[in-house]
Amino acid sequence: MGADRGGGAQQAPDRARTASASRSGLFDVTRILAYALGFIAVMLAIETFLVQPFERHVARWRPRPA
After folding, report:
1. Which helix (H) or strand (E) holds 58?
2. Euclidean distance between the first and final Cα of the chain, in Å?
3. Are 27 and 21 in contact (CB under 8 A)?
4. HEC string for 2-56
5. pTM over 0.85
6. Residue 44 C-beta-side C-alpha neighbours within 13 Å
7. Residues 12, 15, 17, 21, Cα dihedral to 10°
8. pLDDT range class, residue 62, cuts 50, 70, 90
9. Are 25 and 31 in contact (CB under 8 A)?
10. 27 Cβ neighbours under 8 A, 6+ residues apart
11. What is the DSSP-derived secondary structure letter of residue 61?
């Protein structure tokens, strides 16, 4: 009987922690999607305006494929 009380005491903080985590924004899908789309936009801009021009500059000696 004593083991039953100990098990119940262990589970109560876990439920409280989960409820507080969802209220604090840990599972805020809208914010996660906004950050992901922002990251994708930044990476595409870096690729377009930095990497591709640099790649064209470095590879200018190579013959163009037919």
Report:
1. helix 52-58
2. 82
3. yes
4. HHHHHHHHHHHHHHHHHHHHHHCCCCCHHHHHHHHHHHHHHHHHHHHHHHHHHHH
5. no
6. 6
7. -170
8. confident
9. yes
10. 21
11. T
Cα Rg for the chain, rounded, in angstroms? 26
Q: Residue 5 has what pLDDT?
A: 54
What residue type is assigned to position 37 of the chain?
L
**pLDDT for res 44:** 98
Gap between the Cα atoms of 38 and 3, Å rounded: 50
* Tens of pLDDT, residues 3-55: 555 555 555 566 666 555 556 667 799 999 999 999 999 999 999 999 999 99
Question: Residue type at 63?
Answer: P
